[in-house]
Design goal:
The complex is a heterotrimer of chains A (276), B (431) and C (344). Chain A is α/β, with parallel strands linked by helices. Chain A is built from 7 helices and 15 strands. Chain A has 2 domains: 221 residues, 3-Layer(aba) Sandwich (Rossmann fold); 36 residues. In chain A, the strands form 3 sheets. Chain A has a 9-stranded mixed sheet, sandwiched between helices. A two-stranded antiparallel sheet of chain A has the order 2-5. A two-stranded antiparallel ribbon of chain A has the order 3-4. In chain A, strand 10 and strand 11 form a beta hairpin. Chain A starts with a strand and ends in a 6-residue tail after the last helix. Chain B folds into 3 domains: 202 residues, 3-Layer(bba) Sandwich (FAD/NAD(P)-binding domain), CATH 3.50.50.60; 102 residues, no CATH class; 64 residues. In chain B, the strands form 2 sheets. In chain B, strands 3, 4, 5, 6, 11, 12, 13, 14 and 15 form a 9-stranded mixed sheet that branches. In chain B, strands 1, 2, 7, 8, 9, 10, 16 and 17 form an 8-stranded mixed sheet that branches. In chain B, a hairpin with a 3-residue loop joins strand 13 and strand 14. Chain B is globular and about 80 Å long. Chain C has 2 domains: 191 residues, Rossmann fold (3-Layer(aba) Sandwich); 133 residues, 3-Layer(aba) Sandwich (Rossmann fold). In chain C, the strands form 4 sheets. Chain C has a 7-stranded parallel sheet, with helices on both faces. Chain C has a 5-stranded parallel sheet with strand order 15-14-16-17-18. A 3-stranded antiparallel sheet of chain C has the order 8-9-10. In chain C, helix 3 packs across helix 4 and helix 5 runs parallel beside helix 8. The longest helix of chain C is centred in the last third of the chain and has 26 residues. Classes of the chains: A alpha/beta (276), B alpha/beta (431), C alpha/beta (344). At the A-C interface, helix 3, helix 4, strand 9, strand 10 and strand 11 of A face helix 4, strand 7, strand 9, strand 10 and strand 13 of C. The complex binds flavin-adenine dinucleotide (2 copies) and adenosine monophosphate. Adenosine monophosphate (AMP) binds next to helix 1, strand 6, helix 3, strand 8 and helix 4 of chain A.
């Protein structure tokens, strides 16, 4: 029986987020909070592995109280249990401090039931780093497997997994000892429309919520803003590129003009087929 | 086999939530199903929330609910192309507890209201569309949702799915609405600084104003417009019968753009940042369009039952009251374990005896009447504007002469008789 | 922590099919600038099996020092083995800054190393600068879906680390014969200490269009309406000898595979000509192509944001303009090629 823990985060939907044109700040209230889309795939993969091998799927998040909603979403996908660590002392954490806090929570979860596999999303759409996963793995001293696009086998008896790891021009087939951590790509699966019984369970579900004091052996200096080596010094709107020349006339005229412009630089086309 | 509930409520609008709240409070095992991402996410309303009917469900709700502003002033604008006759009432007594009514943004309010029902023990499931009622032996026994393993069963199903209620329609409770039975409303929410709103509408902080717009707001098509103050936004909208839009070949958003740019309105809206654009139907057929509201194992409430008072732009309050009555009837039915149409019919009886039924009957002819005689909107309001303009323009003419001229401008004796007849008719449908 | 002990800007050199990966060359260019500003040495760290010969290229692209770990155990990239080498190198030679390409392996390695050191790591940076006197790295990157740019600092730890997007920095023109100090290192690492094994490497079989290396890209967006409509993009790309790019919405609609996606969550490209058809110009798309030599936009909406970001714009229906372009380019280029042959 496997115990898989997926780390998940609630994030503002950056596709919808609005910018205040005057102050160049984000109007966070304008963007609804959603489950980080990449993490949904991590949870789905955990649920699939559970179906394949049997076991339990837990999800873990660090975030403010409203993040309970993201946990419920994971229960809808099919997770069994949800854990949340929530405390002012965690606030302002960068990836180093985040992985530290999550590791402490994972230590506690593994006392309830030992953890075989930790899953993370490829990255969050707000932090956008993909660093938290490997960070957790290092702290737990288990192998980090990033860019995983397929889990071929999980063998708890013999203590190994075989996965496909995406690289720039293809993929690697990797065997790793178990326990390990995987950060999964979006293409690893499709998250289906959740079945109704899961919806009912999620509507009723109340996650385990822990504060710093509920965790053991915590060095508060390594938490939150204090424990974060990186700081955001400045934020600005990306410079708008300059607008170019609009071609006028009938479609034929426009195409003709474009061609004359492009072909003027015909040296570009000499490179045709030749890679430099 | 899926779980059983005492009652399943389809739709988490004011009607469904009130019903869920009361049922859960009464100890029933309730499932509230909503297709939106959260209650209110898809809901549209001007919107004025009436204190009384909300208090019937949650006393003192105004102490914690996310309300925008208590309304201390209600204005009415009879608009012509470049003028308006305005009247209204402002009273400080409305600015104090227990207040009269409030502006609300449904996306916030419904969410809060639903959380209250959940506190009472109702189970809320979002993002789930009910596709049909499950009927066995001519009794509704549950609903089918669009999710895998999506059937759920209950003793009673309450249809609170809003205007158009496809579910009630598929049970044969009502027909497809005709274009003169529904209004299409479009509205925008424009963001402002609180201070700007208070200056423009002459308000203190935490005071609100509503303006109802008639006449040229809808280019003379039967319908109304509205401009309401929220905390830091304004809601501007227009609603007209579908039949009017079809007849005048005008698209709803064109009408909204028109009123936004109307010289009587534009100054209020200047500098606002568009936050949301919404469109929604309003059932306006009134009493005569109401279909069946009770069947074996099923009750219809709120907009789904056509419970809207178009003349007074009331809807959410009727919805809440109907939801509450439905819950009372269902709790009684649970005591005796009988969910037949005969038992549940008590809901209809109570509803029709209440202000809801009374008002529905009182205005039963109004929409049809105004729809049949468009002159109210496209002739009489401009006439009223011309009269006011003449009366108040100081140009050396005596007021006697002005009155005479106004009287003459109204038209021939035959036309005057027609107007008198129309006014009498209007009075009759409204009285 | 004594900052004085830390000196030098380093680039982790990635090997790709026996040569130095393009992104590492770009980082050497960026690193050179930072090192010069600071007046310190630029170092390259080469880890692999039989990689010593690559040091030459690294020197020619601007490095003063190359640290090499040339051992069989490094045949394949593995987090644990590479991490141990890099940690060893960093602890021995103490650089003030380490840069990595934001590739699968670069990000993987950087995250692990930063956790162990520990130090701050800024992901996916697109702009780099350094404070001359303090050596503080100013690492800037798009955040919140590209809606804002943020500058990230790491004041209290050394080394400072960042991963850098491919294709945004400029490689230096190689200086043949340029050389520097080669530092050969090794660590004692046995196979049984490593918990992962690479069983197989599978290269994409479909001859993958490396759009990040193409000179001409024809990219299509949701405006092409359907997978069939998107065929016009393939046709034009064929005609001009370019690669096919796509917006994310197109990839999500399944009209084309993900590796064609240009933008923040796709590839960053810098072709000489970028033709965007039926693409609205969302900021997340723009960040991936804005450094192209010449950007041509075709969109039927005159207010589309893409027009603010192009050199030449045509307002028009793709289904009208594309067939014309295909025809005219077809004619013109067949002639061009004849011309070209004659010239040579
Ligand atoms: C522009 C406008 C302005 C208005 N202004 C006012 C005003 O100022 N004051 C006032 O009192 N009234 C106003 N009304 C009327 C008022 O909004 C309605 O009468 C009221 O919302 C009715 O409540 P309800 O619960 O019956 O329906 P709704 O509020 O429409 O709720 C129905 C719910 O059911 C859900 N649903 C529908 N079908 C399904 C399904 N198949 N499965 C699951 N869920 C489903 C919907 O998502 C929705 O949440 C206005 C209406 C409009 C359009
Ligand atoms: C975190 C995050 C990361 C993202 N990463 C990326 C990324 O890497 N790459 C990316 O591309 N997007 C990315 N996006 C998505 C991005 O925000 C946009 O949604 C996407 O780029 C829009 O794709 P589009 O331009 O094809 O579609 P649309 O925005 O739908 O635009 C279609 C355009 O086609 C035009 N059009 C329609 N019909 C025609 C016609 N017949 N002829 C000509 N023109 C026509 C329309 O006017 C319109 O401008 C990301 C978003 C988020 C939140
Ligand atoms: N606050 C958090 N709580 C739980 N998991 C997180 C948190 N932040 C990041 N993660 C996990 O780490 C992955 C990478 O995140 P990031 O490094 O922020 O891009 C995410 O996809 C999550 O799986």
């Amino acid at each position: 029986m496997l115990h898989i823990v997926a780390c998940i985060k609630q994030v503002p939907d950056t596709k919808i987020i609005k910018m205040n044109p005057k102050t160049n700040t984000m109007d966070r209230a304008s963007a609804p909070a959603i489950l980080n889309p990449y993490d949904a795939h991590a949870v789905e993969e955990a649920v699939r592995l559970k179906k394949r091998y049997g076991g339990t799927v837990s999800v873990l998040t660090m975030g403010p109280p409203p993040a309970v909603k993201a946990i419920k979403k994971c229960i809808e996908i099919g997770a069994d249990e949800g854990y949340m660590i929530s405390d002012r002392k965690f606030a302002g954490a960068d990836t180093l401090a985040t992985s530290y806090a999550l590791t402490k929570a994972l230590d506690k979860i593994s006392k309830i039931q030992p953890v075989d596999l930790v899953l993370c999303g490829k990255m969050t759409i707000d932090g956008d780093t993909g660093q938290v996963g490997p960070g957790i793995a290092r702290r737990l001293d288990i192998p980090p497997l990033t860019s995983v696009k397929k889990v071929e086998e999980v063998n708890k008896n013999d203590g190994f997994v075989i996965v496909h790891r995406k690289i720039e021009d293809g993929y690697e087939v990797i065997r790793s000892s178990l326990p390990c951590l995987m950060s999964v790509e979006k293409e690893i699966n499709e998250v289906p429309y959740s079945p109704f019984p899961n919806m009912l369970r999620a509507a009723r579900y109340e996650p385990h919520i822990w504060s710093v004091d509920d965790l053991e052996d915590v060095d508060v200096k390594q938490l939150g803003l204090k424990g974060s080596p990186t700081i955001v010094a400045k934020v600005w709107a990306p410079p708008k590129p300059e607008a170019g020349k609009m071609l006028e006339g009938t479609p034929n005229e426009k195409v003709e003009e474009l061609l004359s412009i492009v072909l003027e630089k015909k040296e570009l086309f000499q490179a045709k087929g030749v890679s430099q | 086999m899926s779980e059983r509930f005492d009652c399943i409520i389809v739709g988490a609008g004011p009607a469904g939530i009130s019903c869920a709240y009361e049922l859960a409070k009464g100890g029933a095992k309730v499932l509230l199903l909503e297709r939106g991402e959260y209650p209110g996410s898809k809901n549209v309303m001007g919107g004025v929330l009436y204190r009384k009917m909300m208090e019937d469900v949650i006393p003192d709700f105004y102490k914690e609910a996310p309300l925008e502003r208590p309304i201390v002033e209600q204005r009415f604008m009879m608009m012509d192309k470049e003028s308006a006759v305005t009247f209204g009432y402002k009273g400080m007594e409305w600015g104090k507890e227990p207040y009269n009514n409030f502006t609300v943004l449904r996306a916030k309010f419904d969410q809060w209201f639903a959380s209250k029902a959940v506190e009472q023990g109702a189970l809320l499931v979002n993002e789930t569309v009910v596709t049909e009622c499950i009927v066995e032996n001519e009794k509704v026994v549950g609903v089918r949702t669009d999710r895998p393993d999506g059937d759920v069963y209950a003793d009673v199903v309450v249809l609170a799915d809003g205007v158009n209620s496809l579910l009630a329609k598929s049970l044969g409770f009502h027909k497809e609405y005709k274009p003169d039975e529904v209004a299409l409303a479009t509205m925008e929410i424009l963001k402002f600084d609180k201070k700007v709103i208070e200056d423009r509408f002459n308000l203190e902080p935490n005071q609100g104003c509503t303006i109802e717009l008639f006449g040229d707001a809808t280019k003379g098509i039967l319908g109304t417009g509205f401009l309401y103050t929220n905390s830091n936004s304004l809601s501007i909208g227009v609603g007209t019968l579908l039949s009017g839009l079809i007849k005048h070949k005008i698209r709803p958003h064109e009408l909204l753009d028109y009123v936004k740019n109307h010289p009587m309105i534009r100054p209020y809206l200047h500098g606002g940042e568009q936050q949301e654009y919404l469109a929604h139907l309003i059932p306006e057929g009134g009493y005569k369009s109401m279909g069946k509201v009770v069947g074996n194992g099923v009750i219809v409430v709120g907009d789904a039952a056509q419970l809207v008072n178009a003349i007074h732009r009331e809807g959410s309050n009727l919805a809440m009251t109907s939801g509450r009555y439905a819950a009372e009837t269902i709790l009684k039915a649970m005591e005796i374990g009988d969910y037949s149409e005969a038992t549940l019919d008590q809901y209809r009886v109570n509803l029709m005896a209440s202000f809801v039924g009374q008002d529905m009957k009182k205005y039963k002819d109004s929409t049809h009447h105004f729809d049949k005689f468009p002159q109210y909107f496209d002739q009489y309001i401009p006439m009223m504007n011309r009269a006011a303009s003449q009366m108040f323009t100081v140009d050396g003419t005596s007021k006697w002469d002005k009155q005479k001229k106004i009287w003459k401008d109204i038209g021939s004796p035959k036309e005057k008789i027609k107007i008198a007849r129309d006014m009498y008719r209007a009075w009759k449908v409204m009285k | 922590m004594n900052f004085e002990e830390y000196s030098g800007v380093w680039v982790f050199i990635e090997e790709q099919e026996g040569s130095v990966a393009q992104v590492s060359l770009e980082l050497l260019g960026a690193g050179r600038r930072l090192a010069d500003k600071r007046g310190v040495a630029l170092g390259g760290v080469l880890i692999g099996d039989n990689v010593k010969s690559l040091a030459k290229t690294v020197f020619e692209h601007g490095a003063d020092v190359v640290y090499v770990y040339d051992q069989e155990i490094f045949t394949h990239y593995r987090t644990e083995s590479f991490m141990k080498a890099l940690l060893h190198c960093s602890e021995t030679h103490k650089p003030e800054i380490i840069l990595f390409g934001a590739t699968s392996n670069g990000k993987d390695l950087a995250s692990a190393v930063a956790t162990d050191l520990p130090t701050g790591l800024t992901a996916d940076t697109t702009e780099l600068d350094v404070e001359e006197d303090t050596g503080l790295l100013l690492a800037s990157r798009p955040a919140f879906g590209g809606n804002i740019m943020a500058t990230i600092l790491c004041k209290k730890y050394r080394p400072q680390m960042a991963t850098v997007r491919p294709k945004v920095m400029q490689a230096l023109t190689p200086e043949p014969g340029r050389t520097g100090r080669l530092v050969e290192e090794s660590i004692d690492l046995r196979e049984q200490d490593i918990r992962t094994q690479v069983l197989e490497i599978v290269k994409s079989t479909t001859k993958k269009v490396r759009i990040d290396e193409a000179d001409i890209i024809v990219a299509g967006g949701k405006g092409l309406g359907s997978a069939e409509g998107f065929n016009l993009i393939h046709q034009l790309a064929n005609t001009v000898g370019g690669a096919v790019g796509a917006s994310r919405d197109v990839v999500e609609a399944g009209w084309i595979e993900h590796h064609h996606q240009v933008g923040q969550t796709g590839v960053t490209v810098t072709p000489k000509i970028y033709i965007a058809v039926g693409i609205s110009g969302a900021i997340q798309h723009l960040v991936g192509m804005k450094n192209s030599g010449m950007i041509i936009a075709i969109n039927k909406d005159p207010n589309a944001a893409i027009f603010e970001a192009c050199h030449y714009g045509i307002v028009g229906d793709a289904f009208e303009i594309l067939p014309l372009l295909i025809k005219e380019f077809g004619k013109a280029l067949s002639m061009e090629e004849v011309d070209h042959v004659r010239e040579v």
